[in-house]
Design brief:
6 strands; six-stranded mixed β-sheet; single chain; 11 helices; alpha/beta; 300 residues
């Protein structure tokens, strides 16, 4: 699979990477800078052979490297399949994946597209907005069934008999941009418990839309709006049902955002990578890619 050949067909290029050719070109300078910084740090480390020795890389150019990692995020093939398509060994595919993913994260950080990861950073983002309207929701990602019995209990979500990882996602209601991303948690954790642990604060005058999974979540400073939960053994009134529909129509923006994030198959299919922290890293990068594409297309 060759970057230059794929680039000649714009529609297929977008299917392969999730980005248009123009978006790829816009992201590449930041990616190249981050890659060169990583390369300089590696050159400072002790070497057994001089620089440039050994077999030449199949991913010869910066464009090849960015194309490779975007294709991996978009389609998430096994490393054996990925290696076959790009013409090297499974071991090399593994090395490139773990080397280029942090570089892609740094590139998106340069483009100011990564979501806030802490309560303090989110507060700073929201303070810059006038009367911010934010939607909070939890999203699950399927993982392999752990062998450890305690981890099996922790990660069993109870939904579709799956073991999952969970993140809290905060999006801007007007634009759908991902403003904040909570830490990756086991799938058994409740949405409200995850949000409480993050310790989010909101500026005065802000509005927070949430679903019934956040029942009782009322952070200081924000006006919370959520559907009325049906009492056990009773029915909602017609007025309550109508109000719930109105709230759902406003909250649907977060569902569109989550579906946009999950076009990157690495966060929507069963996650296979067992490296510590990698499950959190790829979710952050997928959110950054969504924000980047969304910004490019909204300003086009």
């Amino acid at each position: 699979m060759k970057y230059r050949e794929a680039r000649q067909q714009g529609h297929r290029f977008r299917l392969l990477t999730g980005l248009t050719v123009e978006e790829f070109d816009q992201l590449f300078p930041a990616f190249q800078k981050a890659y060169l910084e990583d390369l300089r740090q590696r050159q400072d480390q002790p070497r057994q052979r001089r620089q440039g020795a050994g077999r030449k890389s199949v991913l010869a150019t910066g464009e090849d490297k960015l194309f490779f990692i975007l294709f991996y995020f978009r389609h998430y093939p096994t490393q054996e399949v990925l290696a076959f398509w790009f013409g090297f060994s499974q071991g090399q595919a593994n090395q490139w994946i773990h080397r280029l993913t942090p570089i892609l994260q740094q590139a998106l950080g340069r483009e100011i597209q990564l979501p806030a990861r802490s309560a303090a950073d989110l507060d700073e983002v929201l303070q810059a907005c006038d009367d911010p309207e934010v939607i909070i929701d939890g999203t699950d990602r399927p993982t392999r069934r752990p062998q450890d019995s305690q981890r099996q209990r922790d990660e069993y979500s109870g939904r579709k008999k799956r073991h999952t990882k969970k993140n809290i996602v905060l999006t801007e209601k007007a634009t759908g941009e991902v403003l904040g991303l909570g830490a990756t948690q086991p799938g058994s954790r409740h949405d409200k418990a995850c949000a409480d642990e993050e310790g989010y604060t909101f500026p005065q005058g802000s509005t927070l839309f949430q679903d019934t999974g956040f029942q009782g979540y009322a952070p200081e400073g924000a006006t919370t709006i959520q559907p009325t939960k049906k009492p056990r053994g009773e029915e909602l009134s017609s007025e309550q049902k109508a109000e719930n529909r109105k709230i759902s129509q406003q909250r649907v923006a977060v569902e569109h955002t989550l579906s946009g994030i999950k076009i990157f198959q690495i966060v929507s299919t069963v996650f296979r990578n067992i490296k510590d922290g990698f499950d959190d890293l790829v979710m952050e990068v997928a959110c950054g890619l969504f924000n980047f594409c969304h910004t490019c297309r909204s300003t086009a």
